[in-house]
Sequence to fold (69 residues):
Amino acid sequence: MICLTKLNGNKFTLNAIYIEEIQSFPDTTITLTNGHKFFVKESEVEVVNLVTAYYQSIKLLGTDKKMEA
Fold:
């Protein structure tokens, strides 16, 4: 789950698993797999970083650590 801010300033938590698309129009628009859209204050890059960190925390995505020989 990631914490985001709607354009009206209200905070909410979103299950990042259901994100299908993130765009900037210039407002950041998040489209879910069910077609629902959220408009948030965070930038597209910030949302991507939050989603990546969430995926790593639930072991859905590996870390960027390089393997040592």
User: Anything to note?
Assistant: The first strand starts at residue 2 and ends at 5. The beta strands are 2-5, 11-14, 19-24, 28-32, 37-40. The longest helix spans residues 44-57.
